[in-house]
Amino acid sequence: MIPLMTINLMLKMMQFLLMRVMIIQCQIYEVGEKMRSLSEQLENCGKVDEPKEMTNPKKFYEDATRTVTLQTFC
To answer: Which N-terminal residues, if any, form the signal peptide (predicted)?
Structure first.
């Protein structure tokens, strides 16, 4: 018959390994989320918005320069 201390030790080792697996799964999930957000950013990078009506020329100019700056940055 297996001594009770050996069973207890085996259970503690299994608990430790399960905790490690759970931590690794969380890290994999976080990396996946970061990759998903980065791929979305890459997809959106360089997209041009629909042309806007020039009701306010100053605002239109500011938006246009910001868009050009963002596109050169990406």
So the answer is: 1-26
